[in-house]
Amino acid sequence: MKLLAIETSCDETAAAVFRDGQLLSNIVASQQEHLKWGGVVPELASRAHIIKIVPVVEQALQEAGIPLEEIDAVAATYGPGLIGSLLVGLTFAKGIALSRNIPFLGVNHLEGHLFSAMIEHPDLPMPFLALVVSGGHTFLALVHDIGRYEILGETRDDAAGEAFDKVAKILNLPYPGGPSIEKLARDGDENAIQFPVAKLKGNAYDFSFSGLKTAVLYYYNKLSDEDKHRRRADVAASFQKAVVTALSEKVALAVQRSRIRHVVVAGGVARNRSLADAIRTLAEKHDFQVYIPSLQYCTDNAAMIGKAADLFFRRGKSSPLDLPPRPNLTLTESSTG
């Protein structure tokens, strides 16, 4: 089966091509329109998708060496995400499916992250634990099987990536905040400031980063201009350590309680080297296997959408052409058609 996958949930226009489950091409066009605004502007994002989707799909097909006429199935993200952005990719994919009379599947973006590690590790056994950390989502899930998930814990306020963006803005660092803070943190002392790691009542697996963000704001605003310049790297490093600690502690707890020996860490924040190192250290201590996708599969991309779609197509799943975009789609609403 030759599969074309499209991802336009936020500000990345992406397309990928698979043949019999093997990735042949993965094209991502990042939008620069949002940099000066310090965040994604929904209307600008949807307009940019309209401009970029045709050349991105054409490049993916060209690099794969497969013409559109030979594509056997098409998939696209239908949620969660920005409604205008979702509409562009979803409508484009439906148009291909309708014109060529081939199967179509709407893919849950979150399932794409869950199965992104399987692009490079197709034999990843189930069940496995998955920590998904990005600008819009932070949750810990137990993946029983394709389409069967149990959310163990999730953020009660800001997602981890969102906290990185907001703290970057406090420190006058460029958007996106994650890479900017990680780069600055290399010159700082992560033990210089003891920022709080939230201890929540109720679900032991839940996360909270709003209080941490506020603690950074209060600390930094109390500094003199001279100290702000001198201590900015320490603030970045100490904040990053607090986020990594919060995330890794929940993974350790889940591994100990569930006794599952396979853990996936996915999403844009999975690119953070400190987080990856912390999870790998836990893996050695608690004797489990960790799977972290390569950098190009952590941020939004069509390869992960195609991998999820391939798994569902192989089980005979597809979607109707009147499938609407779902901006607030949840993980438990699986890509089952």
Would you mind describing this structure in some detail?
The chain contains ten helices and ten strands. It has 337 residues and is an alpha/beta fold. A hairpin with a 2-residue loop joins strand 2 and strand 3 (22-30).
List the helices and strands and how they pair.
Elements: E1 2-7, E2 12-19, E3 22-30, H1 42-64, E4 73-79, H2 83-100, E5 104-108, H3 109-114, E6 128-133, E7 138-145, E8 148-154, H4 160-170, H5 177-185, H6 210-221, H7 225-258, E9 262-266, H8 273-286, E10 289-291, H9 295-298, H10 302-313
Parallel strand pairs: 1-4, 4-5, 6-9, 9-10
Antiparallel strand pairs: 1-2, 2-3, 6-7, 7-8
Helix pairs in contact: 1-2, 4-5, 4-6, 4-7, 5-7, 6-7, 7-8
Largest sheet: 5 strands, mixed
Q: Biggest sheet: strands side by side, in what order?
A: 3-2-1-4-5
Give the CATH topology of the largest domain.
Nucleotidyltransferase, domain 5
Q: In CATH, what is the homologous superfamily of the largest domain? A: ATPase, nucleotide binding domain
The helix content is: 40-55%
Explain briefly what this protein structure is:
This protein has 337 residues and is an alpha/beta fold. Helix content is 42%, strand content 19%. The protein contains ten helices and ten strands.
Question: What labels describe this entry?
Answer:
alpha/beta; 10 strands; 337 residues; 2 domains
